[in-house]
Amino acid sequence: MNKLVFFNTFLVVFFIVAFILIVTLGKALRSSMFLRRKLPLFVCFMMGLIMICQFFIPSENPLYKNIDDFSTKWIQIITSFSLVIGLVSLVTINLSKFSRGAEDWQYSIVLLIGFFISSFIGLREGLEGPNFSFIFNYMYTPMQSTMFSILAFFVASAAFRAFRARTREATMLLIAAVVVMLGRVELGSILWSYIPVIGSIKWLDVSFVSQWINDVFTTAGQRAILLGASLGYIAASFKILLGIEKSYLGSEE
Amino acid sequence: MKSFFTMINNLDRRIIFLAVVLAVIIPIVKPLDLPVKITPNTQNVFNEINSLKEGDRILISFDYDPASGPELQPMAKAVVRHCFRKNLKVIAVALWPQGPMMAKNAFEDLTSEVEFKHKTYGRDFVNLGVKPSFVATVKGLGESFESVFPSDFNGKAFNELEIMKGVKTYKDISLIFSLTTGSAGISTYVSIANAQYGSKVTGGCTAISSLEYYPFLQSKQLLGLVEGLKGASEYEKLVGKPALATAGMDVQAVVHMLLIGFILLANITHLVVGKK
Fold first, then answer.
1. Which of B42, B107, B131, B139 is the best mutation test for A, with the most CBs of A within 10 A?
2. What is the pTM of this model?
3. Domain residues of chain B, as ranges?
4. Closest in A72, A178, A215 to B143, CB measured
């Protein structure tokens, strides 16, 4: 147990000392190639290595588990700070838009008022408070639902204007889409059953055919996309871990 | 005749919008009471939850926001209803910031019913809230629940919650059910909780994203999937309590038919009038 406490303390002290050094030793140290390039690459490589090891090499060793636990917590801490940066950026940009009188500055005021009021109420009474619940249930929820439901209108309009059998491929897509749409609702099955001959054949029921299209064709395509994206993701990750891809560090200058 | 199709071809989109409005309103005012047919994916989720024993713990992850609420909130309530009836211990977490509020609303709606008045927070169900980084959260739960959630959504300490006594990792959870609308959710639980810790994972999602999870269903990494409003209405039927999803399916059916009608009309017009 002492080893674990020592390890945790060591890491915390290490990061604090590193931070103090960077701040106090000034520009010379900050602009050094080691701090700007090599140290971030080393930290990135080590963190990647830890995450790969903890996934592929399970171990009950307490020190190993502690490193795993520690790295998970660090991810959460860093993500929390990125949230703070996001919020500061949001407020700064909108304040600037308002003060400059930029185009659509009125929306920035609405955003800032909404942001500060909900933050103030949330911080004051907690997320379970009646006023915060009121904002969430009677303002935020209806607004989000409205935005999402508008999609139905645009989909209807877009389907009417764009979904046309201009080519052989478009015709196949159109037939598949109509069958899947019919199969997704019971009304489709009922109407399908009225079609002479086809409607009476059980294995040609629209819900069955719709599910078959999803299970066979769509899943095959989906699996191909998933595998392709995963392989690309692995390749990109290796490039970052090995320092080949360095664009996330910013420019060389 | 050709002038009629030319008119249709140049149809004002406001007429289309009006037709959609009517297709939504009419089934609400006059329900169609369409039958609900259970699909195997929904049945599998029901069977998995039904096979759990009284007192078993189920982790329900609320990974959505109010925008997906019309599809996923009825689903959440139907699944929690099933869990409550089976006297399972429900542990709610979230990978989306708005998730805990969705969980809170679902629990409040159900515990206000006479059937579940006796269900007590902290003993029968708990809302642990949300933590930054969904990958780190799902990964962290495999090592220690208490470490990731030292307190619940209300700030009550982990060790003061009766339901969490003896819960250390995924090994102490019988089943995971994730309500998903985006990248954080089912995929995360499948790739970490199932692949790394061997947990049983099921889920529910919006209809538009359901096909994304079919490869996991076929590989049995995902044991069942409740798909969109249709899946939710099926689950409501399975638990014997038709509610919002069942009513919503009438609307969806009519809107689907309207869309198909528009697509067919547009293509007939296209054939008659030509590309112009």
1. B139
2. 0.86
3. 2-32+251-273, 40-241
4. A72
Measured between CA atoms, how close is B205 to chain A, in angstroms?
A: 15
Round to whole Å and give the CA distance between A120 and A129.
Answer: 12
Distances (CA, A) of A169 to A57, B274, B275: 47, 18, 17
With 0-12 / 13-18 / 19 or more C-beta atoms within 10 angstroms meaning exposed / middle / buried, residue A15 is exposed
What is the residue-level pLDDT of chain A in tens, covering all 253 positions?
Answer: 556 566 667 777 777 777 777 777 766 666 677 777 788 888 888 888 888 887 777 777 777 777 777 788 888 888 888 888 999 999 999 999 999 988 889 999 999 999 999 999 988 887 778 899 899 999 999 998 888 888 888 888 888 888 888 888 989 988 998 888 888 888 888 888 888 887 778 778 888 899 899 889 999 999 999 999 999 999 999 999 888 888 887 766 5
Residue type, B183: S
CB contact (8 A) between residue B66 and residue A144: yes
Which CATH number is B40-241's, of 3.90.76.10, 3.40.50.10160, 3.10.450.50, 3.40.50.720? 3.40.50.10160
Say how far apart CA B226 and CA B176 lie, in whole Å.
13
Write out the two tokens for B202. 């099921």
Residue ranges covered by each domain of chain A? 163-253
CA B121 to each of CA A73, B104, B126, B258: distance values in angstroms, whole numbers, following the listed order: 28, 11, 6, 45
Strands B175-180 and B125-130: unpaired
Pairing mode, if any, of strands B225-227 and B89-94?
A: unpaired
Q: What is the Rg, in whole angstroms, of the alpha carbon atoms belonging to chain A?
A: 28
Query: CA A207 to CA B37: how far, in whole Å?
Result: 10
Name B89's bridge partners: B57
Q: Which two tokens stand for residue B37?
A: 């047919």
CB contact under 8 A, B215 and A164: no
